[in-house]
Structures are given as C-alpha cells and as structure tokens.
Amino acid sequence: DAKTTQPNSMESNEEEPVHLPCNHSTISGTDYIHWYRQLPSQGPEYVIHGLTSNVNNRMASLAIAEDRKSSTLILHRATLRDAAVYYCILETSGSRLTFGEGTQLTVNP
Amino acid sequence: SAVISQKPSRDICQRGTSLTIQCQVDSQVTMMFWYRQQPGQSLTLIATANQGSEATYESGFVIDKFPISRPNLTFSTLTVSNMSPEDSSIYLCSAYDPNTEAFFGQGTRLTVV
After folding, report:
1. CB–CB contact B56 A94 (8 Å)
2. CB B49 within 8 A of CB B76
C-alpha cells in the first residue's frame, strides 16, 4: 500500500496559519488524499480531501503538489481547539483509508 | 453526515473469553471498517466489513480471531475471540461512502485481564 510520511510534531501560535506537510511519493493516479484529525479520547474527524486540485472548505485548505507526491494541509488561523493529531491518508484500493503515524499539532496561546 | 453508535464504550474482560462490539450507523453506507488503536499510536486497519459476504482482512489479522458480521448497510459487529492481554486496545468502527468523508465511532476501550 502507498504510504504517507509526516513530521511527528509541529507547534504553532494561536491566530497564526499552520502548514502541515505530507509526503506520499508512491501515490498512484487514482488515490485520493485525505486529512483527518483526532482529539484525545475521540474518534478521528474528517478535515478535507482531494485528488489533484487544491481544495478549500470551512475548516482548512488542501494544497496538492503538481506531481501529487506531496500535499499540505493549511489551517488559516489556528485556535486552541485545533490542537490534535493530524493524519494524512491515501484512499487506496477497495476505498480503504490506511492511517500513517500523524503529526501532533500543539497550539500555543 | 452520518452518526455512529458503538457499543460497548468500554469493557474489562477475562483472558480466554470473547467480546462482541456493535456498530450502528444512522444511514446506509457503502463501506464499513474496523480499526484498532493502541494508546498513543495511530489507527491500524483490521478489516473491511462487507455486506452479505465475508470480511476482507488486512495482513496480520485473521477471521478466527476477529470474526466480523455485516448483515445490512447500517450495522456491523466485530468479535475479539479468545482474548489475551495483548488484545487490550481501543477498537473503532468507521463508515464511509467513497469520495466523501468517513465517520468514526467513539471507540470501544477493551482491557483484558
């Protein structure tokens, strides 16, 4: 299965933008790129997903490299409630979402 | 959006026994999955629950240990059989329609003593 690589942890200040990177160099042409986040003691929560074009929603933006081998999740203004583990996931054959290790985001007040 | 109810939310079980976890979705979904999550770690996909047929298991997981049922498009069960302390973990159910968003239950925290 295609794999994703993320930094173990990142830190941000409240009200500042956050750029969370993800490498997926073995991605295939039909794999969707998903981002989920998980707060302590909760199940993962959907953030955003895309295939080739950049995507925006009320939570975040997803910037996908032209060769699709990397992507960046952008939180435009981090809040304390955005502190979570963020997972970059490829939707592979059989519509399976296989999680990587994720990035622990800390937001400082 | 879909709402997932997962039962039980937690349990403490004796080794050698079995526990069945239920997952109910409030709307019909194409795909249902079961994951396991050790404390402080990421989610590991156990299997895809296929409606009306045998589940599809990931490498390292077998049907005898983790039998799964999915009788319809809104319900699935995962059984953890012949439990040992190594099975202590959080088990999560997920519902997904391709190219949309996946929804996750709150998880079942299992402790085997």
Report:
1. yes
2. yes
Nearest to B104 among A43, A101, A102 (CB): A43
Question: CA-CA distance, B35 to B20, in Å (whole number)?
Answer: 14
Q: Which two tokens stand for residue A5?
A: 């690589």
Q: Which residues pair with A72 in a beta bridge?
A: A21, A63
Gap between the Cα atoms of B71 and B52, Å rounded: 6
Q: How distant is the Cα of B83 from the closest Cα of chain A, in angstroms?
A: 23
Query: What local confidence, expressed as pLDDT, does residue A1 receive?
Result: 61
- Residue B85 has phi, psi (to 5 degrees) of -55, -30
Number of other residues whose CB lies within 10 A of the CB of residue A108 = 11
Query: Locate tokens 């997932």: which residue?
Result: B4
- Tell me how far apart the alpha carbons of residues B46 and B58 are, in angstroms, rounded to a whole number: 6
Give the distance from residue B102's alpha carbon to the nearest chain A alpha carbon, in angstroms.
7
Residue pLDDT, tens place only, B75-111: 999 999 999 999 999 999 999 988 788 999 999 999 9
pLDDT tens per residue, range B44-71:
999 999 998 899 999 999 999 999 999 9
A98 — pLDDT class (breaks 50, 70, 90)? confident
Whether residues B99 and A32 touch (CB distance < 8 A) is answered with yes
